[in-house]
Amino acid sequence: MRAYLVQHGLAKDKSEDAARPLSDQGREDVTRTAGFLSLFEKPRPAKILHSGKLRAEQTATMFAEAWGGIPVERALDLAPNDDPSVWSAHLASMNADVMLVGHLPHLQRLGGLLICDNPDREVVHFRNGGVVCLEESKTGWHVLWHINPTLFYGEP
């Protein structure tokens, strides 16, 4: 099984828009990342789940559209400060590949918990609009690959 952990695209500042939708740069980053993955990543996740925050929902929808219409749903326990053990347990009971679109520090903590049983350990550096693909094996979870917008633009 694969779990795709996605940090939402770069959002507008609260002072610009209190709802914090994706910024123009955020849309560009997600478009490039999702488009790239749609060409190469097979199999695709069975569904895409997001936190319910506008920027996460927009990011999830953009990935779904790039992959040709994967179902998108709001899910509980994907907010920035939610307990990562909830999703660790959910993933343990799932059989189908899934994409989770959320926020830091939750995704960082979930990655640490899955890979080394320590939510305080930074096992991969998340970026807005980036994807970390984890794969479950008989011995546990490991990083299969990681992609983020710096692939297209270089480091700032």
Write structural notes for this entry.
The chain has a single domain (2-153), classed as 3-Layer(aba) Sandwich (Rossmann fold). Strands 3-2-4-1-5-6 form a six-stranded mixed beta sheet, with helices on both faces. The longest helix has 17 residues, at 24-40. Helix 3 (84-92) crosses helix 4. The model has no long low-confidence stretch (mean pLDDT 94). Helix content is 35%, strand content 21%. It has 156 residues and is an alpha/beta fold. The chain has five helices and six strands. Helix 2 links the parallel strand 2 and strand 3 (72-74).
Feature tags:
single chain; 156 residues; alpha/beta; Rossmann fold; 6 strands; globular
**CATH topology call:** Rossmann fold
Order of secondary-structure elements: EHEHEHEHEEH
Q: What is the CATH first-level class name? A: Alpha Beta
Largest sheet, order of strands side by side? 3-2-4-1-5-6
Alpha-beta classification: alpha/beta
How far do the termini sit from each other? 34 Å
Q: Tell me, what's the shape?
A: globular
- Low-confidence stretches are none
**Helix percent band:** 25-40%
> What share of residues are in beta strands?
15-25%
Tally of helical segments: 5
On the 0 to 100 scale, the average pLDDT is 94
Q: Quick one: how many beta strands? A: 6
Give the C-alpha Rg.
14 Å
According to CATH, the homologous superfamily is Phosphoglycerate mutase-like
**Count of the separate structural domains:** 1
Please outline the major beta sheet.
6 strands, mixed
- CATH architecture annotation name: 3-Layer(aba) Sandwich
